[in-house]
Amino acid sequence: MPELPEVEVSRLGISPHLQQQRIEKVVVRQRQLRWLIPDEVLQISQQPVLDVTRRAKYLLIHLPDGELIIHLGMSGHLKVVPQHTAAGKHDHVDIYLSNDFMLRLNDTRRFGAVLWQPKDTMHTLMANLGPEPLLGDFHAEMLLAACQKRSSAIKLVLMDNHVVVGVGNIYANEALFQAGIHPKMPANQLTAEKAELLVQVVKQILAKAITQGGTTLKDFSQTDGKPGYFAQQLLVYGRGGEECFSCQTELKEIRLGQRSTVYCPACQGEY
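The structure corresponding to this sequence follows.
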């Protein structure tokens, strides 16, 4: 699943092609994605693009009447292609631009979404989201306060979008390893010192992933079709049963919240 860095890389990739352009029309070949694409999206015509932003894993294309919301789901990716480019089997949505290009959403598994948010309103999916991890309102005191109320595993809390957005499974594994915290540790046992370290590590890992083009998963390709390069530098995710790079102990793999969780019993202890 594309995580926050991959979505931010998509935003950075598509923004130069959308800035100062108009959306001429939206062509939808498959309306039933995770949710039905609403009528408002189909009716977009000759609308100038004001901005392209991101909130959590949602891309927002700002138009005078509201925002076009795109979520990549499990397997979606965006590409900017010439308007005459033939559609492939899983090319479900084409957003035609005034520069003779179009923004194309390809989504094999159809878990993505294209939605509409009228001007000066907030879509229900946007309500109650936690702070952005790369901004100043995600800090140790805030994380500590959220954790004090919870006895669930720290990894599950870190992945909770109400606590902080965009820390998905890959980066939660990596951050907890680098902070030396066992993923099953009850959140209310997090110390102020460890909270400080964890926040710092989360910010570093996400920023590095964005810089290096996003971690490439099987179904994700960058906007220009080139894969990201961060996957080669993952320390624990996807490496269960292999040696820890730090201490050569065999990494253990367990399931937490139905997600693969890899940790080093020496570097992160046991629970």
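The domain at 140-263 is CATH 1.10.8.50 (Helicase, Ruva Protein; domain 3).
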